[in-house]
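Q: Protein A?
A:
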Amino acid sequence: MVAIGLPILSGGRGGLSVLVGPSAGYIFSWPVAAFCIGFATEKVWTGIKTWKVFFINAVFGVILVSLIGAPVMALITNTSIWAGLVASTVYLPGDLIKAIIAALIAVQLKAFSPIKDIKNQ
């Protein structure tokens, strides 16, 4: 949707220029992070706990996205990778709050999940 120009990113941004700008690494890391979060969460699904899902969200949804996005941002803006990583720390508090909220929601949604425990079938 962003690629076709819909203004759905922060500041009403959209279009192909966003996909080659400083935020490109973050945008392209989202599918990787989503896969990793889903895969890891499914592995702990039978014994799911909020702290486990929070840890998974923090590692793959916060740290992994920053480790992919910050170096790409640094490369595009012609700064050091360290500067990119330091700059991305400003988003950590908000990202960790969102990781907690997502973990709480995921644990509550287990009751409605189509994923079944193989041992109980």
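Q: Protein B?
A:
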Amino acid sequence: MERDFGTLCQLVRKIGGLRQEDLAALVGLSQAFLSMLESGTRRLTNIDKIIALLEGLDVPPELTGPMLRPFDAAPDDA
């Protein structure tokens, strides 16, 4: 399943009333890269950047799936 991070960023910006510069600062991407991501000319494929984007957007770990969940956020079995 392909993730459309460009559309996600556009929606977050629209709902939050943010400029690209604002969102880029929140998620650790450059404004230029975010612009290309939103226009579809670039894709976000680096796992570290994907994690940074999701953490910057404060996406709950239960929505990201186990591969993108930080180890310390996993529930304890104890």
